[in-house]
Amino acid sequence: MDAFSDIALFALIVKLGNMAAAAQELGVTPPVVTRRLANLEKRLGVRLMNRTTRKISLTPEGEDYLMEGVRILEEMNALEGRVGGGSKQAQGTVRIAATLGLGRTHIAPALSKFAKQQPQIDVQLHLSDRPVNLVDQGFDLMVRFGDLTDSRLTARLLAKNSRILCAAPSYLAIKGAPAHPRDLGKHNCIFIREGDETFGTWHLRDGSENVSVKVRSNLSTNDGSSALGWALDGHGILNRSQWEIAQFLRSNQLVPVLPAWSHPSADIHLVFQANQQTPAKIRVLVDWLLEAFKTHRIKTKNLYGAW
To answer: What are the two backbone dihedrals, phi and then psi, of residue 133, each rounded to the nearest 5 degrees?
Structure first.
């Protein structure tokens, strides 16, 4: 085995978190991966990682080898791309993470169509409403709401989206509609426990006026679909994404509340590592998804957009 394949193997083990997963990815048995890693450490004369039955951790030498090794591989890929004129066919596995609701409703169906057009690219879709760290958890691509703050990552706008306060007409007929965010304290506000957002706090803005409101409710959940069902049943005011509630606004099963007030950015982005040479398999998938969702990037003044 050459040095480049050793670097690639080591990076794959770190990315997937264990040697069994790396063996499965490569289509070999775990002992083969274990033996190759042992031979690599023997050749270098250092231990690269500490291994237990449950996890692995890098030694200082392993961290240096990974960082410099990945850089060398990226430079080699970039060189081959320039020399080959980008003619190398995109292939391999792409691991993509998305939230449960959006992932089930929009991302999974889009990937089904992608798989028919690009069968040489294997897609592994991971859906979860728990926060995902793209770099640390070894994902190639992530579907994310809101602005990006990590400079190690690149974000491409997939779809315009906003959060909207809404309620069932039956609820508003009894409780009345709030005229200002401060009035929300008098209402039952169904809220969702998710991400890093402050529990039960809504942030709204109208021009230069910013208001943070601590809301209360006898119903809260970590599942958006459950919260939506409660709102449709007339239990209170809901703060939910445009992509999910547009159909209910159109049918007047829900009506907007405080429509002049906006919320923090909830646009949907495709996020991947900011490498000089993004692998062809990721570029192909990103370009395909951007084309599939292009109508959703057209900004409109209505509450529905293209959803």
So the answer is: -100, 105
DSSP result, 50-93: EE-SS-EEE-HHHHHHHHHHHHHHHHHHHHHHHHTTT-SPP-EE
Enumerate residues 6+ apart whose C-beta is below 8 A from 5: none
Give the tens place of pLDDT for each residue, 38-71.
Answer: 999 999 999 999 887 667 889 999 999 988 888 8
Helices (H), the chain: 3-16, 19-26, 30-44, 60-83, 100-102, 108-117, 169-175, 224-232, 242-250, 280-292
Question: Do 238 and 190 contact (CB within 8 A), yes or no?
Answer: yes
Domain at 163-256, CATH class: alpha beta
Amino acid letter at 174? I
- Is the domain spanning 92-161+267-297 CATH 3.40.190.10? The answer is yes
Q: Which CATH class is domain 3-83?
A: mainly alpha
**Domain extents in the chain:** 3-83, 92-161+267-297, 163-256
Burial label for 74, CB within 10 Å (0-12, 13-18, 19+), is middle
How are beta strands 163-167 and 56-58 bridged, if at all? unpaired
Indicate the pTM of the whole model: 0.70
Going by their DSSP bridges, the two strands 209-214 and 49-51 should be labelled as: unpaired
